Amino acid sequence: MANKAEFTEEQGAKGTTLRVSGRLTLSNLEDLPQRLDAIEGPAAQIDISAVERVDTVGAWIIHQFSGRTGAQIIGASEEAKRLIALVSLADADVRVRPEPVNPVVRVVTEVGDATVIALRTLLGLVAFFGAILMASWDIIRNPRRLRINAIVHRFELVGVKALGIIGLMSFLIGIVIAQQGAVQLQQFGAETLTVNLVGRITTRELGVLMTAIMVAGRSGSAFAAQIGTMKLTEEIDAMRTIGVSPIEALVIPRMMAAVIMMPLLGFYATLVSIFGGGLFCWVSLEIPPITFVQRLQEVIPITDLWVGLIKAPVFGAIIALSGCFQGMQVEGNAEEVGLRTTSAVVQAIFLVIVLDAFFAVFFSQIGWI
Amino acid sequence: MDLNAPIAVKIRGICNHFGDQVIHDGVDLDVRNGEILGVVGGSGTGKSVLMRTIIGLQRPSAGEIEIFGEPMTDEENEAQLDLRRRWGVMFQGGALFSTLTVAENVQVPLREFYPNLGQKLLDEIAAYKVVMAGLPANAAAKYPSELSGGMRKRAGLARALALDPRLLFLDEPTAGLDPIAAAGFDELTKDLSKSLGLTVFLITHDLDTLHAICDRVAVLADHKVVAVGTIPELLATDYPWIQAYFNGLRGRAAQSAVDRHMAKGA
Question: Which of A24, A269, B171, B223 is the most exposed place for a label (fewest CB within 10 A)?
Fold first, then answer.
């Protein structure tokens, strides 16, 4: 480029003189800074009279060179003088990077932080559960404070609107279980046992468990995001000032909706899964629907249904609890809402699966096999 | 102010609408080289939308914009990219990248446009820009979440100045700042615009800012620019919104503060 910044070195009586020419601006610098850095001092003068244009970066380079080598700046135009004065005012000892931390210390600190946060969350969750119980007790003594409208509205959001997606998911899961089971059982000539497999696994475990995961993703996250946003916009503080308890107005309706909707959704999911499995058996294994239903009645004990239906409200409570809890923890900025929503879903699914394991052992022990 | 100064931003017949809602209906405005132009208007008159239109974040449904004599288009070509690096924008909240430190934020545009700059020079540039924007030396290594609102705006300004732009857009620079920080920011804007020869397009609600640093003020109302000029010139018009704005209680208070300041200086 014609206007590229350039310089020449001259040895004079007083020492080295640098003559800079061209445009000393960011877009015309190219490798000039590196080459200037390569010059070891001291230099007597730096002549910038041939510089056509200069910006603050150019001025900084001149200023920095002159400071490093002791060169005197000559031939500066008015504009160059002004900019050099400006950057020299801004020349301070600035630390650009955060102080490096020893990696060992950092790992230990992070593990410690994570432990403290996990314990605090657990404690907070218990405290939050306590607050909900207290609010529930208040409502039991004063049933008129129950917000029926809010609860019914949540029923629709948590339950009715989830029917489509949960139905589709369960239908496909039913087909997958039947298909995968049939492939394995055929090897022993026992493909009729597919009915047992589909019927029992969906009523006992998968119907409710998959529903819980879907509700955690759909509604648990929504609870956290809604309450978190309300926390950010100070709506929750406004409620408190007016004398409305946020637990009563926001958490209890969501909690009740989840607790009541989960068994219904779980039962519905179980039925749809069985329907999907039955359809596969009919089409692929040529087990007619009548036979399929008869076999179901023979092989599924009624306790299997209780196993599923007892777990469902507990899962619902866990999902609503962690969603609302994480929402109430939001503080500061919008980024927090996203983080808390993620934790709400992760926490809910994790707790649901842990509890499911406990339930599995418990029900086996009491003989509901 | 030089009345014959060349035009930095030329806006002609800009129309913007969101659905049925008309925001701009034929906005004409000139920003002269080297001036600080304040843009005022009631809430919802499309001040920010006008700025977003000029910098190409919002596509107008009609109208033309020229910046430094070159037309703005949607094309993603070399010339448009070259145009883009000639302005800096400071958004209302600073809009800093939250995962980067202040210094790294300042370096983002530099790295993007000049990948060959050495790390040492990048660090030096970030350092002096941060100081120039009036931040303390220890702020460069901090993350945006560790800064106060005023410091975040200054960091946003440092990033806007990273490429040595000739044109600077400021969206409500003093909103949310306490009066001392706001006055400090006004001072900084004025100083920098003078020493760097910047043209500043400044959106504000702050009457004190208008009085203190703006060379001219453009008033947006009824979907257009209804008046442009110095504050005395605007006061001479009889447009009701302008009268209410500058002659309202707050407007008069700001004016008398300026008068008192002038009297003390004289």
Answer: B223
